[in-house]
Design a protein that fits this description.
The chain is of the alpha/beta class. Helices cover 41% and strands 15% of the residues. It has a single domain (5-247), classed as TIM Barrel (Alpha-Beta Barrel). It has helices at residues 16-30, 47-54, 80-85, 96-101, 106-118, 131-135, 139-150, 180-197, 200-205, 219-223, 240-248; strands at 5-9, 37-41, 59-63, 90-93, 122-127, 163-166, 207-211, 230-233. Helix 1 (16-30) packs parallel to helix 2 (47-54) and helix 7 (139-150) packs across helix 8 (180-197). It binds phosphoenolpyruvate. Phosphoenolpyruvate is lined by residues 9, 11, 167, 172-173, 211-214, 232-236.
Length: 249
Amino acid sequence: MRKPLMAGNWKMNCTVKDAVELVKELKKYVKDVKNTEILVCPPFTALNEVSRTVKDSNIELGAQNMGYEDSGAFTGEISPLMLRELKCRYVILGHSERRHIFNENDGVINKKIKCALKNNLKPILCVGETLLQRRANLTKKIILNQIQNGLKDIKADDMKNIVVAYEPVWAIGTGKTAMPYQAQEIHASIRDLLEDMFNQDVGFNTRIIYGGSVKPDNIKELMMQSDIDGALVGGASLKAKDFSQIIRY
Ligand code: PEP
C-alpha cells in the first residue's frame, strides 16, 4: 500500500535559529507517528542544522530545489551531491513558484529529475494549473503535458522513487483549497496517465500528494479521497502544532 507522505515546504522562511526551533517543536509533537512519512524542506541555509536536529528521528529532510548538474560553473546553484552530504532524501522540483516566478520549464525540470535520481534523491514533481487554465477547461491537458514532459525518458523502475504533487496554482498560499472531489478527480487522472505511460504497478504504487492551502481543518476530508496519498504543505507547515495536526489527520 502507499504510505502517506506529509511534506512541509518552508519556502523562503526561517533563519537557521527559527528553523531549528520549529523542527525541535515538531519533533516533540510527532515522535510517536509511525504510519505516515514526515518530511520538512527548509531553505538551503538551514539544511545542515535541521539535518542534525532530525537525525535518528522520524522526520526526513528535503530541499526545495536543486541544480541539474553535479558540479561546475553554475553560480548560485546547489547540487544534488551537496544535498546528499547533508542527508537530504527528497527534493521538491517544478514547484509552481519556480515555474511562474523563475520561469522554469518542463525541460529544465526533467533534467533536474534525472540528476536527482542519479544521485539517490527522491524528486517530488509538482504540477498544477492556473486559474485561467482551469476556467478555460485546460486543467487535464496542462497536467498531462507537465507530467509527460517532466517524466520524459524516466524508467518505470525509477518511478518508485518519485512522488507527484498536484498543486493547483490558484490554491497555493491563497486560502482557497480545491474541493476534495476536485482534487480526487485530478489525482485519479494522474494515476491513469502514469499507468498509460509506464504500467499498472506504477499507476497504482506512485504516491500522488495534494498541495494548496492544506490546513488542519481540511486535511481529513482530502485524505479520505482514494487517490490522495498525502500533502505538500506551505504556510501551515511553519507552525509546528498545525503541521502536526495535519500529519495526524
Ligand atoms: C506549497 O508551498 O506547495 C503550498 C501548497 O503552499 P500553501 O500550503 O501555503 O498553499
